[in-house]
Amino acid sequence: MPRKRITSLLAAGAAAVLAVTGLTVATAQAAAGCRVAYTISSQWQGGFGANVAITNLGDAVTSWRLVWSFGAGQTVTQMWNATPTQSGAQVTAVNMSYNGSIATNATVSFGFNGAWTGSNPVPTAFTLNGTACTGGVVNPTTGPPTTAPPTSAPPTSAPPTTPPPTGSLPASYRWSSSGVLISPKSDATHNIAGIKDPSVVYANGRWHVFASTANSSGYNLVYLNFTDWAQAAAATHYYLDRSPIGTGYRAAPQVFFFAPQNLWYLVYQNGNAAYSTNTDISNPNGWTAPRNFYSGMPAIIQQNIGSGYWVDMWVICDTANCYLFSSDDNGHLYRSQTTLANFPNGFDSNTVIAMQDSNRNNLFEASNVYKVQGTNLYLLLIEAIGSDGKRWFRSWTSTSIAGPWTSLANTESNPFARANNVTFSGTAWTRDISHGEMLRAGTDQTLTISPCNMRYVYQGLDPAAGGDYNSLPWRLGLLTQTNSTC
């Protein structure tokens, strides 16, 4: 199996509040009822995050429209898993294409960030599909409502104290870096030289980090979680070769919650593009055995890979389609596509070259694609090898995941992230800014990030280190943007 050649808030939470309401189905003589759980997940000066869970206690519905009014002038600034409109105090949240159906006793959830001044009281009344909610099941032919217990919401949560997305992407970037936050932890059966390729989400009050472990014999995966980045160094490392993911070559993980299936996905490379699923991100033994997105390496990659390696798979979805990106260490970025309804199947037959460069170092590996909150833009990051041999990131934007892509900050003199636009407290512990993951504004398949106060977890390396690539002492740190437009 080829090895991967290259490498690649919080205070101020508020109490949950339940508003018990009812649902009326548009069909005549249909039993109806629902329960709405409105939870303020985090709050900061002038802003807040909230989760809303609708449990259908009546007959199944195929679409939904939830309406409420704010009592103190609050406004919705960004919403995920629903489409918002607001007129004065009244807010309407409408289902997405993938979550309009709610079976009896099933739950659908969405979240949002909002702004407030003065106070932030919880809404006291909701209507669903045009009818005032009553708090139980209503059958027009049989009489008064009855109550039913709530069901649990999907295991997703809004990020902690994320400011509302009132900014934009700047044309140039400045960052400050933490010191080393996460280092390898060897045990009796794992002799780890480097920890690298991090992917991270914030869910259920904790940061969940997945990463590659590396040594001279190859790669596998590790998982850790913590409530605050100050605790990252002390977090327990769970080696995923002990889970159904198994032993052998596994590297470069990406994690996200796929809302249409109510499942967590862990994407990684195993010589193919592989994935495992889990209903509980905090259970390292809950991941399924590897399954592949492709029957084999797509022909277009075989024709262009040269002496490179097929690496660094990345999945992102919009409201209709899912896209799978990968690199070849030979100057090519590839993209495959399938429908949201067909995911994870359907990638096999339509792989294309999304971007290419005759200088393989300019488009090397470790691509990330994100939806930029509050805008119609997507942000593409690709790791390059600089003229000094050090790793750095270039960036582009587009109004579509399928491109075309417009240059943003993508030169050595104006990079997205490189040693020359990153400051350290004291001596720089790395000159490589390599394979990583943006801290997202949510957990789902849209991979949404806020343009305000961007933060990026990355792998770095002692500048004096050398030797066998797999044995290099990679460590993880955190970049924080210092020239936010917000």
TrEMBL record:
Residues 1-30 form the signal peptide. GO terms for molecular function: alpha-L-arabinofuranosidase activity; polysaccharide binding. It comes from the Bacteria. One of its GO terms (cellular component) is extracellular region. Residues 137-170 are annotated as: Disordered. Residues 27-136 form the CBM2 domain. One of its GO terms (biological process) is L-arabinose metabolic process. It catalyses: Hydrolysis of terminal non-reducing alpha-L-arabinofuranoside residues in alpha-L-arabinosides. Pfam families: CBM_2 (PF00553), Glyco_hydro_62 (PF03664). Coiled coil: none annotated. Its main location: secreted. Keywords: Glycosidase, Hydrolase, Secreted, Signal. Residues 142-167 have a biased composition (Pro residues). Its EC number is 3.2.1.55. It is an enzyme of class 3 (hydrolase). The keyword NAD does not apply. This is non-reducing end alpha-L-arabinofuranosidase. It comes from Phytohabitans rumicis.
